[in-house]
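Inverse folding, one chain.
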């Protein structure tokens, strides 16, 4: 690349332009948060350079790390300057021209669709630097990366394009200069600036200066005693570390002294972070060593199933010179990870016990993630299962496994469940009919992870887990509810001839055909045989390309259903093989069972033809 650079003009990534437009309007009533965001960015830049200087002392600035504010009421400008890591040409393009997050398009669509307050959605995504355009007609970014000679000037009015050119800056770091809009000139006033910093940035661990005055305490908030920290200060520190706009659902400030000293200040968000279900499942908790920032992406500090946590962990016993690579195998860090995991699970158990309604909100946001620990965290599996909550056919709201077991019927020896994509749809499944008739409670498992932890945990409190869509439903030993009237059950037909005819017609499409003990209202259902893969697990594996062909299922017939009894009466041993209606009925019953499970007919055109033929014959009688 040539050493001579002319001013270059670039277009914002499409999503950036759309986000700028939305953010400018959505956060207008709370525009002062722009200063919090820019001061947070400056703090992060200082943190990154302080870490880099541990292994390359030449990068360290000549002065102490400081964030400096400068205002000019006449010119209507405000600048935020730091002596941190700085940026080069490539960094500016990547950081200030695009949004390097997968799923950005979907997020923009969600913002457009949200009719009410968009602040919550924006908080899940984090807009950081771009919030400057809420108050600015133009933003200038003068920056020089530590260890490099060349400085750069980035400029934009936030309306679709930006420029980058070579500039002059004596030291590394970044200065963001805001040319304030007419209706935002208040943010150049000293009193307004002081108030905002005191409100939002008191916790910043580097001095934030205006002239000769330091506007914040400039110490590590997490090192203060909890009794000296207000709820508002916790909230702003949470927003600083997570770049969010919501309030924390729960705060956990813990200091551990003994064999391995460490302090943690962790937050559970009140809404799902935007990246919660990203494939890399990264932690966003920052690791400090003696108040020096190290990293926020190590997988060995916070387990993946607790990745919804935000905040910091600071250890006095890790080496200050530890590299990010060395962290992957540091036994001390593994001990901290275990300690934190146990503490978080303990706190969640308290919340679940003392505030079950509040815990329901947490579970709706993060339950599916927490259950991943049932697969991954063998040592803490019992603790995790204890705080898991489930929808069920009987309980109002969510239920724990211990409460489910306490309600089990006399003679019931299993914890019954049905798995699928939607609890409301599962509630209508024909597989539940016999269980409802007996008053047997069934758990409704609608998270994808459910099928996988059930491969690792086969029982609880001595009771085995059993899917209602697999194996025979032997409910004869379960006592019926005495309070419910037992309606006179229709006489069951002899299905032997009908079963033989259906088997002959469907062939290998089904594994078996047999009378059902689980159906009371529906004529048919499909189940997995004992020892076969559960219906929903097979569906999930096929959906993700991990299974090409499923196994044939067992077709169960309701021997007391009018349709089945009519077909059984028609199916005489001498005429079944020549009866077109019975032939069509066999296929239609099979496809009806598939449709009840949310599947489509195997051959839609064949299904439509057979259905038309049967209806024509029925209406001609």
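Residues assigned per position:
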């Amino acid at each position: 690349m040539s050493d001579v650079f002319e001013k270059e003009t670039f277009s914002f990534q499409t999503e950036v332009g759309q986000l700028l437009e939305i953010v400018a309007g959505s956060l207008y009533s709370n525009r002062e948060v722009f200063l919090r965001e820019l001061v947070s960015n400056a703090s992060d830049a200082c943190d990154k350079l302080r870490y880099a200087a541990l292994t390359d002392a030449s990068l360290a600035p000549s002065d102490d790390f400081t964030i400096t504010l400068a205002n000019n009421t006449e010119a209507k400008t405000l600048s935020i300057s730091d002596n941190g890591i700085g940026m080069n040409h490539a960094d500016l393009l990547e950081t200030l021209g695009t949004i390097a997050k997968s799923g950005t398009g979907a997020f923009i669509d969600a913002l457009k669709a949200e009719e009410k307050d968009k602040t919550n959605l924006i908080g899940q995504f984090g807009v950081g630097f771009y919030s400057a355009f809420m108050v600015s007609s133009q933003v200038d970014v003068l920056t020089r990366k530590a260890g490099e000679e060349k400085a750069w000037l980035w400029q934009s009015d936030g309306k679709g394009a930006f420029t980058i050119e070579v500039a002059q800056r004596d030291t590394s770091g970044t200065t963001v200069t805001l040319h304030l809009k007419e209706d935002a000139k208040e943010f150049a006033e000293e009193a307004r600036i002081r108030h905002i910093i005191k409100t939002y940035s008191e916790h910043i661990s580097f001095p934030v200066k205006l002239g000769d005055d330091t506007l914040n305490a400039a110490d590590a908030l997490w090192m203060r005693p909890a009794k000296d920290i207000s709820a508002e200060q916790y909230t702003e520190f949470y927003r600083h570390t997570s770049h969010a706009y919501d309030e924390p659902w729960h705060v956990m400030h813990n200091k551990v002294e003994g064999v391995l000293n460490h302090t943690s200040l962790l937050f559970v968000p009140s809404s799902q972070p935007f990246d919660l279900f990203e494939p890399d499942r990264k932690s966003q908790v920052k690791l400090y060593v003696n108040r020096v920032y190290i990293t926020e992406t190590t997988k060995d500090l916070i387990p993946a199933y607790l990745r919804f946590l935000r905040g910091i962990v600071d250890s006095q016993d890790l080496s200050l010179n530890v590299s990010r690579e060395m962290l992957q195998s540091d036994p001390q860090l593994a001990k901290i990870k275990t300690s934190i995991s146990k503490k978080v699970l303990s706190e969640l158990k308290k919340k679940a016990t003392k505030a079950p309604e509040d815990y329901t909100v947490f579970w709706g946001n993060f339950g599916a993630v927490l259950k991943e620990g049932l697969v991954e965290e063998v040592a803490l599996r019992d603790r995790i299962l204890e705080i898991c909550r489930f929808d069920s056919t009987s309980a109002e709201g969510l239920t724990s496994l211990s409460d489910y077991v306490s309600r089990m019927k006399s003679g019931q020896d299993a914890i019954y469940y049905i798995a699928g994509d939607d609890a409301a749809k599962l509630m209508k499944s024909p597989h539940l009919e016999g269980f409802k008739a007996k008053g047997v409670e069934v758990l409704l498992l609608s998270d994808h992870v459910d099928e996988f932890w059930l491969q690792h945990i086969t029982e609880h409190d001595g009771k085995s887990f059993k899917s209602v869509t697999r194996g025979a439903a032997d409910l004869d030993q379960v006592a019926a509810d005495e309070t419910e009237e037992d309606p006179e059950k229709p006489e069951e037909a002899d299905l032997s001839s009908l079963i033989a005819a259906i088997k002959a017609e469907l062939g290998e499409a089904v594994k078996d055909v047999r009378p059902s003990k689980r159906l009371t209202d529906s004529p048919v259902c499909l189940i997995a045989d004992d020892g076969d893969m559960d219906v929903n697990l097979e569906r999930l594996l096929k959906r993700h390309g991990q299974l090409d062909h499923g196994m044939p299922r067992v077709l169960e017939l309701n021997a007391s259903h009018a349709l089945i009894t009519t077909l059984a009466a028609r199916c005489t041993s001498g005429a079944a093989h020549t009866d077109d209606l019975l032939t069509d009925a066999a296929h239609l019953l099979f496809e009806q069972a598939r449709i009840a499970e949310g599947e489509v007919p195997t051959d839609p055109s064949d299904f439509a033809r057979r259905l038309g033929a049967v209806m024509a014959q029925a209406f001609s009688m």
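The CA atoms of residues 305 and 369 lie 5 Å apart. Confidence is low (pLDDT under 50) at residues 115-125.
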